[in-house]
From TrEMBL:
Name of this chain's protein: AMP-binding protein
Span of domain AMP-dependent synthetase/ligase: 8-350
Origin superkingdom: Bacteria
UniProt organism field: Pseudoflavonifractor gallinarum
Residue span(s) of domain AMP-binding enzyme C-terminal: 400-474
Pfam families: AMP-binding, AMP-binding_C
């Protein structure tokens, strides 16, 4: 694995420079090398997937890398998960061992706690990894719209393909080499990008803990101190950073690049980023966990702001993943499901559920459930298929209404959901609007009526100071669905 080769070189060459910082701890490359070698030697004595439990401490990525070196798949589990979720994920994955970086007990599973890991002796040499590219590198559990977590195994080959592609994006390697800032939890696949881009380029990886992310002064202090060149984050997190005036190049002169991924990046957010960081290298990356973190990215320039932003440039898609609309190479300008094929795809869910995976005459494909369109050589996002609504006979894309609302002054973010009747039919549209102050509803309605046809104008509005978020930092639509059904609390 190229990743392991780079790890070895960096641990040898970068010595006392910090490799991982997080949760108030730091681990140098030299110490990382010793810990990875020691843990891998222990892991190599057994077989089967390994649960790695904790939060943002440097021991977490050290354990991931040890699993990769030992050729055992790892399953990252965050301390924010309820115990039952950890247990169930471990069971579904058929895990045989638990590395408890933070205290955790899973009955029946061989467990090594942090003290035991610290005490393992460094063999001094790197063991030879025999695992091939088809073997599983990690298993990430996605929330799954049905509520049943789906285990997504990703092969070592797919991970290498993803990293090769991500490093081929102009400017990314140079930014990452100066240090990478992490927002996402390690159980969320966005972190695969920041963790391993740092390992590939020798940049220090600085992780922001959950607590730091809810306390701006600590978080910004950590960000400034990191001196990082690249920030990998969701648009929600970027918007949160932008609410603070100190998030600017004057305070954080080293920040040269932002890789935004996981959600729609609105023009307004990009525009604000360029105002704060005029020379910013900004990419809007797109991809599901099933396709290994990201499969496409579009470089966003200041002049692109003002209209919808693309999620990919067809000429810059990875060599090991192909993107089709509707499952077949099709002409530009057709809206359809974004379908992926190629070596960067997961072999399929652990639980055996087919989900979006299907075998076709031309090989295995994965239907993302996302709608997209290819226009001018670029890929554009058109919302989720499962959020499409049939209302008053019309096919309605909540994303289109949300985008229209978000262009109105003062509105930071909007989410539009259907109000369902007893028979499951759509009775109306409800818009949740996030803004610093209660909006002037009559003004909002008036402006929206000028932009959208009548059947797309929501009949009900609700103000939220902050959208409910999933642990991954995305808008939590399941909570919003409950609010539509039972009323918003408070
Ligand atoms: P996950 O598997 O949790 O990483 O979520 C993947 C989903 O996030 C995709 O299928 C999209 O619906 C959404 N997504 C990821 N990146 C973007 C993006 N740049 N713009 C819009 N939606 C995105």
């Amino acid at each position: 694995m190229r990743l392991l080769e780079r790890l070895r070189e960096n641990c040898g060459g970068l010595g006392e420079r910090p490799a991982f910082c997080g949760g108030g701890e730091a681990m140098s490359w030299a110490v990382l090398g010793a810990k990875v070698r020691a843990t891998a030697a222990m892991l190599a004595r057994g077989r089967g997937p390994v649960v790695v439990y904790g939060h943002k401490e440097p021991w977490m990525p050290a354990c991931f890398l040890a699993c990769l070196l030992a050729g055992r798949p790892y399953l990252p589990a965050d301390r924010s998960w309820p115990h039952e979720r950890v247990r169930r994920a471990a069971e579904l994955a058929g895990a045989t061992l638990l590395l408890a970086v933070e205290p955790m007990e899973l009955p029946g599973l061989e467990t090594w706690d942090r003290g035991a890991l610290e005490a393992l002796p460094d063999p001094g040499t790197w063991c030879e990894c025999m695992a091939g590219p088809a073997e599983i590198a990690y298993i990430i559990f996605t929330s799954g719209s049905t509520g049943v977590p789906k285990g997504v195994p990703i092969s070592r080959g797919s991970l290498d393909h993803f990293l090769t592609w991500a490093l081929s994006l102009p400017g990314i390697a140079a930014c990452a080499g100066r240090g990478v800032l992490n927002q996402a939890g390690y159980a969320f696949d966005l972190s695969v990008a920041d963790l391993y881009l740092a390992v590939m380029t020798g940049g220090t990886h600085t992780a922001l803990t959950g607590e730091e992310q809810s306390d701006f002064s600590t978080m910004f202090a950590r960000m400034w101190k990191s001196g990082a060149g690249l920030l990998v984050a969701t648009p929600t997190f970027l918007r949160l950073c932008l609410t603070d005036a100190s998030f600017c190049c004057g305070q954080m002169g080293t920040l040269g690049g932002v890789l935004s991924c996981g959600e729609v990046l609105r023009s307004r957010t990009a525009e604000k980023l360029f105002r704060r960081f005029p020379k910013l290298l900004l990419y809007n990356a797109y991809g599901p966990t099933e396709g290994t973190c990201a499969v496409s990215a579009a470089r966003i320039h200041p002049e692109d702001c003002g209209s919808e932003l693309p999620i990919g440039e067809m000429a810059r898609c990875g060599a090991d993943i192909s993107i089709e609309i509707g499952g077949a190479p099709c002409p530009e300008g057709t809206v359809g499901e974004i379908v992926l094929r190629g070596a960067q795809l997961s072999p399929g869910y652990l639980n055996g559920i087919p989900g979006g995976f299907r075998d076709t005459l031309t090989g295995r494909a994965y239907g993302t459930g996302d709608l997209g369109i290819i226009r001018d050589g670029k890929l554009w996002y058109r919302g989720r298929m499962d959020e499409q609504i049939k209302y008053r006979g019309y096919l309605v894309e909540p994303g289109e209404i949300e985008a229209a609302l978000e262009t109105l002054s003062g509105i930071e973010r909007a989410a539009v959901l259907p109000r369902l009747g007893r028979d499951g039919g759509v009775q109306g549209l409800v818009a949740f609007v996030e803004s610093p102050q209660l909006p002037d509803w009559s003004g909002v309605k008036e402006e929206l009526e000028q932009r959208l046809p009548p059947w797309m104008c929501p009949g009900q509005y609700a103000w939220v100071e902050h959208m409910p978020l999933t642990p991954n930092g995305k808008c939590d639509r399941n909570t919003l669905k409950e609010w539509v059904r039972d009323g918003k609390p408070g």
